[in-house]
Target: Helix-turn-helix transcriptional regulator
Amino acid sequence: MIFRARYTFKDLREISGFRLKEISEKTGLSVNEIKAIESDSGEMEVSICKKLSKFYNIDTDYIFIGKQTDFDKKLNDYLGGT
Model:
């Protein structure tokens, strides 16, 4: 099953300040897999989405269903209100 993303994992990585290698080490995904997802994160396998969602501690609802207001608030809180 493949879903279309509303928010990209590249955005989440850049906002949170992680390097590709760090994400690779913590998720078990290769750097090349992560790069491929980040270059076109509009479609990916559910299992990969779950790994990355768990890593970023963001429910897949915030990515796929588009709970934008909740996502934006959570992101704003994470960034310290900036």
